[in-house]
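Supplementary Data S3. Sequence and structure tokens for construct A.
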Amino acid sequence: MEKRITAELIEAYSKHLILEEKSKLTIEKYLRDIMTFKIFIKEEVTKENVIAYKHKLIEDNYALRSVNSMLASINSLFDFAGWNECKVKSIKIQQEIFCAEEKEISKMEYERLTAAARKKHNERLALLIQTICGTGIRVSELKYITIEAIKNGLAQVNCKGKNRRIFIVKELRKKLLSYAKAKGIIAGPVFVTRKGKPMDRTNIWREMKQLCKEANVSSKKVFPHNLRHLFARTFYKIEKDIAKLADILGHSSINTTRIYIVSTGFEHQKRMESMKLIL
């Protein structure tokens, strides 16, 4: 029996993901990866053309983690369709002991971004940047930063089938309540568009990118998730408790949290220099 990715199969798989309670963004990502694979093979699914697709992604210089993520999407479809013989192995990636300095945002750069937002009279963006960096929440979780949560100093976040509490520090609470009062926001999410809808990832990404030149920060570093990384590294430097940090970030695995707290190559080099083992 031929194995073909039909519109009917994709529709059934999409419904399956909904019943599995996958998030909207996760479902969109899985389906996007599957359509990319479908365009590549142009024919029946076989183990051989799945392997060829895997090699093509590597040849096209996709990051290895991205390759594994894309393979996981199509393997998930194969599980659903009962095509287990077509599944391929992910690429083994050695754990990095430090991250590239040009990819991770520093505290000084974060401060310059916030200042640039204020200079552009965009107080909403300045506070949004501080909220992500000051709480460690995901950009998709900003909708849980409501007037009610701010007054309680605690946001109840429901993400990826898990519930967790996010503490909002006193100084941030004061800033957010002052902003909300000025904007006439008396209930619900604080970070909303002019039409009153919660800001989405695209809005936020675009506004942050517009700060790069003014803040003198590389555009490669400026995206919401990097602020979450800065929160994680800063917290870990103080607490040295990776299990507690994993709980705060909402990670199921400490291995995921480890990715967030690797130091830059420059910091790694400084530690090596301080060892003074060259006589």
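Construct B, processed identically:
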Amino acid sequence: MKLLALVALGVMLAAASAGAEGVGFRDIHVEAGGERLLVALWYPADAAPGQTTVGPFTMAASRDARLGVGRHGLILMSHGTGGGRLNHRGTAIRLAEAGYIVAAPEHAGDSWRDGRHSGTSANWHRRPRQLSAVLDRLLGDDEFGPRIDAARIGAVGHSAGGYSVLALIGGRADMALLARHCTERRSEDPEFCGYGRPGAPDDALMPDLSDRRIGAVAAVAPVGALFGAGAFAGVDVPAQIHRLAGDRVLRKPWHAENIVRLMGDHARPVVHPMAHHFAFISPFPPALVGSVGPPAHDPAGFDRRAFLAGIDAQIVRFFDGALPAP
């Protein structure tokens, strides 16, 4: 009888394990500063591997699948200027496969369909606040909240999203420094400095936008020219900083290199010798490549899928180490 009971238990455990092999996907809405954000969620699911199509994108995830058993770490994901919630869907799925819930808002005022604040000083204030609002919403959610391990919360961001996640751990942007940079260095950093436009006053240090619930961040090709001396004073959260050596949008040494220098021992720098600024964006379907422009194109000989497989593995290892499961 004992043997039969053990066999039955083994079958039950195997069935439970097999049921949690997939990735779930759903969209939710989050209120942030009086605005409604569309937020994509990927998560470990009690479902077999499946596919979901959203607009032109097909993903290896099952729509509205049930959240997998146990407690999970949570990773906030912030896209770059003009991007959207599905920009880094491949990375999100890889994190979900590793056991994390991933939440990617489409930033109100700075996305492909809403650029009201793109390039303004207000944008640097709004983005981190929106990420914190998403975190508030998920921790208070009846389904997801009890299943999130509050000791294992991180964030990953690209470009302006890289700045956004660094602000979440206490990085303070200086608008006066940014204005001087683009007055004195415009010819050396032309793409970034061409992005700015009139907005909020350019003569102030950003307020503290940190969210102490964040335990680790990964910033890929982050905007860094708005950080100066003392910008990371008191910050003790580990940050993996990815420099894309072929980046012509955020030029060396004003961005990723500047952040690594200012953060000192808390920065975990990673250099990708062949990668360009848009390499971290998941590949676009062939039908969109012609209309999307530079974000959809790679230099001759560059394999975006291979690059993403490598950087995604590095990001997962970083969060596993910085936010270890009990």
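The two ends are 34 Å apart (CA to CA). Residues 33 and 130 are 8 Å apart (CA to CA).
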